[in-house]
Design brief:
membrane; transmembrane helix; 317 residues; two-stranded antiparallel ribbon; alpha/beta
Length: 317
């Protein structure tokens, strides 16, 4: 037996014992936060939005490409099934943008079919260089989603953020939206995001964070904790690059100790177990993949030592 096999077996025994003990002592609590899970979904990992103390399931849903299906009736029906599985698995936050083609319209179509408008957490964006167009985009999003107000409005990729944050702050003060935020991706413009976080009152930021892309750990995540800002993690799988990296590779044996049955759950649990990450937003058009993703909300979560060993395992692949 090689070194990594021995270590995996040792860790599996250690974390299985710890998880079993925790399940007897705290059956209705998240192993990560120690906070009660919603009664409708015992054991569901939720995070607290710092600015409101509202609970948020730690896995949401992205809609880039996957919900941009236009008027295709077959593709739309598939989106209805995907969203139904998302809700069934305990999800709430749905992230979109005017940049994503027909995605907002398709989300609204699905919500109407499922009659679940009250359950979801709507999160979309302003994506335009013009302030006046930003206001119109907010109204367009409300119409397309079929809701009276969008819960979270974000400035997409910091585009004209000064003008749009001014607009969003006004709309929030008027009660037309509940939360405001800014987004980036691919590790871009982190210094600028940091300055905005220091200078403005934000409820959310959105950035890229996954088991490979961890630049945000150095400054942005600690600052979010300090300022009381919730963090949405996009690109949890680097699109498909992480799956290509582990293609044909078996999960580490220790993954069973945190309830991982596939690589998607392994990658997601690494993200949502970080104490400063509020929600990860994987996107998929496959029903089985959505069910796999949502299963990562339950079961034991890796602690800091386990996370370090997950990083080591990925480096060894």
């Amino acid at each position: 037996m090689g070194y990594h096999d021995k270590r995996a077996r040792r860790n599996f025994i250690k974390y299985s014992a710890a998880s079993l003990a925790a399940s007897f002592c705290f059956p209705a609590f998240s192993l990560l936060s120690g906070k009660p899970s919603p009664a409708e979904k015992p054991g569901l990992l939720t995070k607290i939005i710092p600015s409101s103390k509202e609970k948020l399931p730690a896995i949401g849903m992205g809609s880039w490409i996957t919900f941009n299906v236009g008027q295709d009736p077959v593709a739309r029906q598939n989106c209805v099934r995907i969203l139904a599985a998302f809700f069934q698995g305990g999800g709430a936050l749905i992230d979109s943008s005017p940049m994503y083609g027909s995605s907002e319209e398709v989300i609204g179509h699905c919500l109407a079919r499922l009659q679940r408008q009250a359950r979801h957490f709507s999160a979309t964006k302003i994506w335009t260089p013009f302030q006046g167009s930003g206001i119109r985009q907010v109204k367009d999003s409300q119409r397309l989603w079929g809701v009276e107000k969008i819960k979270l409005m974000q400035v997409h990729n910091l585009l004209s953020w000064e003008k749009h944050l001014e607009t969003l702050e006004k709309l929030k003060a008027e009660g037309q939206i509940k939360y405001i935020g800014i987004t980036t991706s691919h590790g871009r413009r982190h210094r600028e995001m940091e300055k905005i976080m220091q200078a403005r009152e934000l409820d959310f930021i959105q950035l890229t964070y996954n088991i490979i892309d961890r630049e945000a750990e150095s400054r942005l995540l600690p600052l979010a904790r300090e300022k009381g800002i919730a963090v949405i993690a996009n690109r949890p799988f680097q699109r498909k690059a992480l799956f290509h990296r582990v293609e044909g590779k078996a999960l580490p044996a220790s993954a069973k100790a945190i309830g991982c049955h596939n690589w998607a759950q392994y990658f997601l649990k690494f993200i949502i177990s970080h104490p400063d990450i509020s929600c990860a937003i994987p996107a998929t058009s496959q029903l089985a993949h959505m069910q796999e993703n949502m299963a990562a909300l339950t079961g034991a979560m890796p602690d800091s030592q386990f996370r370090a060993e997950m990083l080591s395992d990925i480096r060894d692949i």
